[in-house]
Design brief:
This protein is of the alpha+beta class. The chain is built from seven helices and eleven strands. Helix 3 runs antiparallel to helix 6.
Amino acid sequence: MKLSASFLLFLSFFVSFLSAIRADTKSTDSCSSNEAVSSLIPFYSSSFHCLSAWSSQGFVLRYARTDTNKWSYVLSAPDTNAYVGIGFSHDGHMEESSAMVGWFDSSSKGVIKQYYLGDMESSACPPDQGNLTLVKNSTLIAMHSSTIYLAFEVITNQPTPYLIYAVGHPGDLPSSNYYLDEHHDRATAKFDANSGIINGADSSSGFTKARKHSLLVILGWGLLIPIGAMVARYFRSHDHPHWFYGHVSIQMVGFALGLAGIVIGFDLDSSGVEHYDTHKALGIVVLILGWLQAMALLARPVNTNKLRKYWNLLHHNIGRLAIGFGIANIFLGLSIADEKKSWYIAYGVCLGAWIVAAAWLETRYWMKSGD
């Protein structure tokens, strides 16, 4: 029953964590809420096609061919105090494409501009330039219920076959020269404007590779490994070995998830990322400590062996170091990724619950020891 209780505790942490981090993927707009769009955008009508363009960031795209060579677009996205943009590309790459980007500044003034995307560098993406022929006086940006709406009309016989979406870092808005800093996240989608079919912007989970890395490491090193350590310390029984099998099983699953997250992390683009080397080094240290713990199982002396107390000392302290470094590196990684507050809150709540549970069990442990 004790092990069952610990598993239920983990499941409650897991569900709470996923619920919290998924909350930031929900859009405040949807294709079923067109009334607000009609009141905000003069050229919008019910004949517009509507689709979920980039669900992980809550982007919704409405568009229509409103004349022989005129296409009208309305892009909506949750307001995160960052710029949002939609680009038009012939080959799916950002370079040499054009984009419409908008944001609301600190004075709540809306800004929408066309950009030519010459390269990844900010200086190569000048404002008020690009290959889109915009209908005069058709571009506008609006805000409603914490949702940003970018609207514009383009003169073209046929839109480009690829769309590029981007969102800036929260709180990092363009300065007075309107040059854009590097995006926080982006996606590319193959787009057939005639059929309304869009593919490629979303994975099945709605997570980027960086978020998959974060989620796996948090579940493995940040939740399962600490819970497994708790099982070994507080549910130990000399009469029944169930605690041991539970401890080993939880740690093996935690190690596997953490390892998978680290493997994904090595494949992430680190260019220009501050503190990346520190984060990577700590990750390697945690991996080595975890590997030592796994190998220690093979060299575990029997209880009667005089070396057992030294083995216990090393095993316990290496485990504590792995957990401590792992938790610290998780918060460093969230900072590097500039994740939303919901990730900090979700993991902080889970970690806080684990600390409270460990403190209560530790108190009981010492009270029983004193009996």
